Amino acid sequence: MNLLDAIWNLPIYGLEKSEKEAIILEHLNYLTALHQEHCPAYASILRAFSWGEERVNTLEEVPYIPVRLFKEYDLKSIESEEIVKILTSSGTTSTQVSRIALDRQTATYQSKALVKILQEYLGHQRLPMLIIDHPNVIRDPQNFSARGAGIVGISNFGRNHTYLLNEEMEIDLSVLESFLETHKGQNILLFGFTFMVWQYFYQALEKANITINIPNATLIHSGGWKKLHEQAVDNKTFKQCLRDRTSLGKIYNFYGMVEQVGSIFMEGEDGYLHTPLFADIIVRDPWNWKPLPYGQKGVIEVFSILPYSYPGHALLTEDLGIIWGEDDSPSGQKGKYFTVEGRIPRSEVRGCSDTHIPIIKN
Predict the structure, then answer these.
(1) What pLDDT is recorded for position 223?
(2) Is 130 helix (H, G, I), strand (E, B) or coil?
(3) pLDDT of residue 144
(4) pLDDT of residue 346
(5) Which of 69, 199, 209, 223 is deepest in the core (most CB within 10 A)?
(6) In a domain, 356, yes or no
(7) Which residues span the domain enclosing 229?
């Protein structure tokens, strides 16, 4: 019996800190040992830091690696013939991408976790789904970009999948009209990456002076905030503008990365991002890498108990964030709740919307 088999029926946002932390640490200790044994590059990293076979008792003690290493090295704990899918991140060049090797087991775990998380927001019924993208983005199922992987993952919650854009990234208003007419009065699901939703959906409607009425729709989106912040568009503005133009009922942002697909951090009704059963975070001081107390901004480190095919269970990101509390969220969801405050200066800007921005220089 695998360790994960015992947790699928536990509440995603219902465990108190002590119970959840015990589960997370048990799995992280197991994964550290697993990848130390099966991934030579990861084992070399641990040896360089004099790591033996010790078990840890706190999240801050779990050995972590920078997420950027997946752009530089082939980090996997499975044989090549076991790979069923390779996920790639977006990046500023075609060579600077993370390549994440999944075996059937890990792909199954990540899909199952994503289902459990999103069912908390969407329910158990598949909804008519409007995808704010073009269909060719998923043309190669063996080598998904983060954008393609996101679409495929969320598509499991939809039916009658309809792509709104053509290959020139132009909105097809006839497709939109037909979709809305066909599913008039039904609950529907919209999905797209944040910057693309803004530019190719909202701004296109605004330019055409078109207003639609979809109060029964739920929009899930993520990625591309850097470009929006440059336009002075924050999360609150994004939601308000979309609602003014479309009367959208529910809008949820999420934080995630291709290196930990499945362990996404969804926005709650309180506007904060929330850690699910399968994942956790801490925030580290960029000067000494010590964990920071709640309310202070630092570098986000993410944990996931799902990566069995590659050592992605404890990753230091290039994002800045603030943890605001734990188990006392206004939304009623247990676990830590936090906000993402941007990128580390001079780090490569990457995003699931595949917007390519040069590295910031002094």
Answers:
(1) 79
(2) strand
(3) 53
(4) 65
(5) 223
(6) no
(7) 115-254
For residue 348, what pLDDT is reported? 47
Burial classification of residue 158, based on how many CB atoms lie within 10 Å of its CB (0-12 exposed, 13-18 middle, 19 or more buried): buried
Six-digit token string for 95: 């060579």
All residue ranges of the chain with pLDDT < 70 are 1, 90-95, 138-146, 346-362
Q: How much is the pLDDT for 46?
A: 94
Written as six digits, the tokens of 145 are: 């970009």
User: What is the CB neighbour count within 10 angstroms for residue 80?
Assistant: 8
Side chain identity, residue 24: I
Phi, psi of 137 (to 5 degrees): -65, -15
Q: Whole-structure pTM over 0.90, yes or no?
A: no
Contact 120, 133 (CB under 8 A): no
Let me know whether 198 and 317 are in one domain: no
Of 220, 191, 225, 194, residue with least CA distance to 319? 225
- Residue 233 and residue 313 in one domain: no
Domain count, the chain: 2
Query: Which two three-digit tokens encode residue 230?
Result: 């440059």
Question: Helix (H) and strand (E) counts for the chain?
Answer: 10, 15
Report yes or no: 59 and 282 within 8 Å, Cβ to Cβ: yes
242 and 279 part of one domain: no
What pLDDT shows up at residue 340? 93
CA distances from 161 to 95, 107, 151, 228 (A): 32, 22, 10, 27
- What is the C-alpha separation between 178 and 302, in angstroms, rounded? 41
Assess contact for 276 and 263: CB atoms under 8 A: yes
Is residue 303 located within the same domain as residue 221? Answer: no
CB 57 within 8 A of CB 18: no
Residue 358 lies in a domain: no
> What is the rounded CA–CA span in Å between residue 122 and residue 115?
10
List, in sequence order, every residue forming a beta bridge with 165; answer none if it has no partner.
171
